[in-house]
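For consistency, the fold was encoded as tokens, as this record shows:
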Amino acid sequence: MAKLTVTSLQQMKRDGRKIMAAVCYDYQLSSILDRAGVDLISAGDSVGAGIDRDPGPMNIGRFVYDAVTSTLHIVRASRL
């Protein structure tokens, strides 16, 4: 399966094809979404409260860490 790029997403839009997007909060869900054929996967910003069980403020360093680790293994979908 070829990796989706911005160019391929633009072509999908020009062709009138629907683009499916979803939000993931952990490694397992992003893997399931990618295998299911979701086109865009975004790491959710409430991952700290949901996964880390820490409702404290989310700083950019923590968000980047959580976003990278939860979407690191995506094969086909584009990451947001």
Observations:
- The first strand starts at residue 21 and ends at 24.
- The beta strands are 21-24, 40-43, 78-79.
